[in-house]
Specification:
7 helices; 7 strands; Rossmann fold; 190 residues; globular; 28% helix; alpha/beta; 7-stranded mixed sheet
Length: 190
Amino acid sequence: MALEPNVRTWQATKVSHSYVADYKPFSFVDGEGVRCSLYVAGCLFKCEGCYNEAAWSFKYGSPYSHELEDRIMKDLAHPSIQGLSLLGGEPFLNTQVALSVARRARAEFGGTRDIWAWTGYRYEELVVDADDKVELLGLLDVLIDGRYEHDNRDLSLAHRGSTNQRVLDARASVAAGSAVLREDLMALRA
């Protein structure tokens, strides 16, 4: 069973070491279209059945660097790329990295590249926690939220692993002040 977040101690400034577990340019599996997928290191949820247990450690992989960020921006500039995907680990517990790359992507590409993120948090938990999480949420287009629940695993779902997880329109959710489903993406099957 995944842990419940503790808003006082689950802060990126306290747990993150700004490590990256992996970077995969030109990926076809982490969202719609061709994507640049950045896997950050570190996760406290530790969901049973997680597909990426190695990335639970906040020191897994290598430190995030300006050179990697430059490479991501170069890859995002390729005309075949639809967007950036932030995965983990847990992007909302590694906001130093996630915010750096998302801010720069928005500055360089505006809305021409979408940004997706996967999180174990529920949208409702993100908006009451910390400024860094709210800022990251505001830079996203799509948020897949909720802890992976192995007992609710459904391999036929697109973009998520268990039936409790939601695919949200991040911008509409921020504007509405409550979770807004992306019904078109929720209905997709793998």
